[in-house]
From TrEMBL:
Pfam family, one: LRR_14
A GO CC term assigned to this protein in UniProt: cytoplasm
Domain Disease resistance R13L4/SHOC-2-like LRR, first and last residues per copy: 130-230
Domain of life: Eukaryota
Record keywords, A-Z: Leucine-rich repeat, Repeat, Signal
Signal peptide: 1-20
Keyword Signal appears in the UniProt entry: yes
Protein name (Swiss-Prot/TrEMBL): Disease resistance R13L4/SHOC-2-like LRR domain-containing protein
Keyword ATP-binding: no
């Protein structure tokens, strides 16, 4: 009877909101939030962390010195409160987890959250004042609620093989975030607000096969390490002044225009990987990349290199195997590099190991 009353009430709310807003997306958000709030834990019934973890449907190991990721364990601080919690291969994540008062690190592996639509529970906001490290792997999480942006102390976020399709706009409010790993998911785009993550230095996007654009990163002021292998990205990002390492192997790139805007505010060595794309044209601006040290262009569709590349005095390694160079042009390029860069590690023939 109680459940029927809940859904009748919900139907009325949805109908009223429908007339008021006329947006199915907003209605969907209201629907999700309503059910999530209904299923959120009542933390007032727990006097302390001891009562919280004793309500869990599984045992916690507080004594293991190894702290292996394959175990379900917890670490307490001097006050007896849980600061680290690792949940591995349990039936579900107990909602009472979000009632822990000083949790700094939460790791969840192959353990489902109790939400009806495979979203991360909005109760995650209860950990906003303490949580700094969050990893969820091999666990279905299709989306993050907008409340996720309240985790302003979060430094490291890893969502690995969760089926994630999008990030909330509130991701830009994560002012302490330095490391973001979203590999092996189903992302189709990045929100424009990601540019506001002013502490972000490392972003990993490998194996998101539906991801075609990362232009939302254009102008990001702090990003140093970007890894986006095995996607369908069609253009490189622009104006990333602190970028040092860029991995974009096996994408859908056809050119590298404005590559000189990457890492142009730092003198640190640049390592760029663009192998297994469809690049036909290398911009003369390649010469303006600040301290370019390593460049991988294997398995593309290049038929010529710009003369400017011979003027890059900092280049130490160049891979150009399996492109569309004629034998004559390739021989001439190799001879020229031997004159201009006698110490260059040049990999140009598939018949010769490098």
């Amino acid at each position: 009877m109680k459940l029927q009353i809940i859904f009748i009430t919900l139907a009325c709310i949805v109908q009223m909101k429908c007339y008021a807003m006329g947006s199915y997306n907003e209605i969907g958000t209201i629907f999700r939030n309503f059910l999530q709030e209904y299923s959120s834990p009542d933390c007032t019934k727990y006097a302390n962390d001891d009562e919280v973890y004793k309500s869990f449907p599984f045992e916690l190991d507080f004594h293991s010195s190894k702290r292996a990721a394959s175990e379900t364990y917890a670490v307490k601080n001097a006050h007896g409160n849980i600061v680290v919690l690792n949940i591995n291969k349990q039936e579900y994540v107990p909602p009472a987890v979000f009632c822990l008062t000083e949790l700094r690190e939460l790791y969840v592996h192959k353990t489902k959250f109790r939400t009806f639509d495979l979203g991360l529970p909005i109760a995650i906001e209860r950990l906003a004042s303490t949580l700094k490290y969050l990893t969820i792997s091999d666990t279905p999480i299709r989306y993050l609620p907008e409340q996720f942006g309240r985790l302003i102390h979060l430094k490291e976020l890893k969502l690995l093989n969760t089926g994630l399709t999008n990030l909330p706009n509130s991701i830009g409010k994560l002012s302490s975030l330095t490391y973001l790993d979203l590999r092996d998911n189903k992302l189709v785009s990045l929100p424009l607000t990601i540019i506001n993550t002013l502490s972000l230095q490392t972003l990993v996007l490998d194996n998101n096969p539906d991801l075609r654009s990362i232009q939302a990163l254009n102008g990001h002021s702090s990003l140093k390490f970007l890894q986006a292998d095995n996607c369908q990205i069609e253009r490189i990002p622009l104006n990333l002044p602190q970028l040092i390492n860029l991995y974009m192997s096996n994408n859908s790139l056809t050119h590298l225009s404005n590559i000189h805007t990457l890492g142009n505010k730092t003198n640190k060595k640049k390592l760029f990987f663009f192998d297994n794309n469809s690049i036909r044209y290398l911009s003369p601006h390649i010469r303006q990349v600040n301290n370019l040290n390593f460049l991988n262009l294997n398995y593309n569709k290049l038929y010529i290199l710009p003369m400017d590349i011979y003027e890059i005095s900092t280049l130490q390694t160049l891979y150009i195997q399996n492109n569309d160079f004629s034998d004559k042009d390739l021989q001439e390029m190799v001879a020229r590099f031997h004159r201009t860069h006698p110490k260059l590690r040049l990999c140009y023939s598939s018949k010769k190991s490098c």
